[in-house]
Predict the 3D structure of the following.
Amino acid sequence: MQILPQDVLIVVDVQNDFCPGGALAVADGDAAIDAIHRIAPRFQHIVLTQDWHPAGHSSFASAHPGKRLFDQIETSYGAQTLWPDHCVQGARGAEFHPALHLPQAELILRKGFHPHVDSYSAFLENDHVTRTGLEGYLDERNLGRVFFAGLAYDFCVGFSALDARGLGIEAVIVRDACRAIDLDGSVAKIEARFAQAGVALIRSAELLG
Ligand code: VGL
Ligand code: ZN
């Protein structure tokens, strides 16, 4: 697959808390980094996202006495999974994994900072209304197709790709440059939605060579 000058690689949430030893560790999360480093030099534009929650965020199970980790609650914007405290603003767990080396990244987009709304997607918060500003950024810079890598495949990567499609932006996920949480069939569920929405799935090898 040919990478075009306007294509952007969006590297999602490669942070300590999503890697082994972190508060919401994705199995082998840090293993996505090698593939990310292999494909990154092929792109003229890279954006990093950073999950960035205030302490006591409403997506934390600890903020809901009586609820357990990974329970679902109903919120004003629909169902919300309750996570361990993770990616708290300024904490070590919120820092990018120390092995991630992408100094050429042009933007670091933080998300999830509104106390009462979670944001899996890099485009739209979980209320499906509040914008992160990424669409406007890409638009103003005439950046087009978006490629995704990072964590977690079945949450922040997946919902970002679906929202890109919803905004009319071509979206490609580099599968082996991602790792999944796989909570209650979340991988199968989101892959069914990828097929519906026209999210493309490729291997990093298709961008190399
Ligand atoms: C994520 C759950 C909660 C992710 C972020 O990056 O996929 N998942 N916050
Ligand atoms: Zn989060």
User: Anything to note?
Assistant: Helices lie at 32-39, 134-140, 153-166, 186-197. The pocket of zinc ion (ligand 2) is lined by residues 51, 53, 59, 86-87, 112 (CB under 6 Å). The mean pLDDT is 98.
